[in-house]
Amino acid sequence: MTSTLPPLVQAFSGAIGSASANALTYPLDLVTTRLQLDSPEKAKKSGGVHGAIRILRRIIKNHGLQDLYTGLGTDTGATLLSNFFYFYFYAFLRYLLTRRRLTLNSKPTDLARPHKPSLAEEILLGFIAGVASRAVSTPLNIITLRLQVEQEEDEEAASEAKAESVAGVNGVVQKIYREEGILGFWRGFKTTTLLSLNPALTLALFQVYRRVLARASVTTGANPSPSQAFLGAAVSNSIAATILYPLMLAKTRLQASSATSMREVLRDAYTGKGRSRRAKTSLAGIERSENPGIYGLYQGLEMQIVKGFFSQGVTFLVKGRVEQLIVEMYSRRR
């Protein structure tokens, strides 16, 4: 992230980068959701990359290639909103922090050297920005998740389901409101709040990566090249996702089922309770399998890392390029 640019520029470039990455990697997101909602027994037999290929083949066979993008519209909307507000809040808070720390410094020579937030400060800034942005995007995320889940539950009615996507979205919205009221659109928000640590940790690790590159670079303070930005963001996200994955799994299952708490969802994942895909009556059908233990808390991790690797890499690559273009356009006008 080019922290010297205005927050609005960073928000715009971050939103464009995230939306681009979302469109490119959306089928991976769909597959990851299916793997997370598989029963533990099925996931053990055909999880990981092989399970992802199995799911992709089944979707294409039963619904057609276009249904790999079921819910893309609402998910892209959520991504644009979430990341615009996230990068704006983060950049604005970071600006305030550096300005405040400079004001507190009594040495005039320090004014030429901006304060660089510590790793803990970076994580805190990212967490606050993440909570604020997720409050805006959670309803669209839930609608997208329900679209992804209900597509597979209604495989027998696949021909009827191929109506316009707008009708599908309206149907899901009405169903959520009818069953759970307005608060249903923020179902699992407590878990989502904790997941704000994921982008916060990713961004903090990326800032550390930038500082290491800057020290190694001949040109002081040089920004990462596109390939360096891609690699740094991808690795940072992979590390963050691995650490926080049980919370990601809990969020997906909590928003797709009738479970009432994160603790309940995590306990079910650990003891081997999985949502049955064949239960058409509701999203909360439960089937029992052998106790998966810790493995159950990391079900679908492989595809989450693959998805996050490319998604975050593309996000920061495009974001950096957009910022560079804006700077060049501004320089030409002067």
TrEMBL record:
Transmembrane segments: 78-97, 192-209, 229-248
Solcar repeat extents: 5-96, 117-212, 224-325
Membrane topology: Multi-pass membrane protein
Keyword Phosphoprotein: no
Keyword Transport carried by entry: yes
Molecular functions (GO terms): ADP transmembrane transporter activity
Entry GO terms, CC: mitochondrial membrane
Keyword list, A-Z: Membrane, Mitochondrion, Repeat, Transmembrane, Transmembrane helix, Transport
Recorded superkingdom: Eukaryota
Coarse class of the protein's main subcellular location: mitochondrion
Annotated family: Belongs to the mitochondrial carrier (TC 2.A.29) family.
Name under which the protein is recorded: Mitochondrial carrier
Annotated source species: Mycena venus
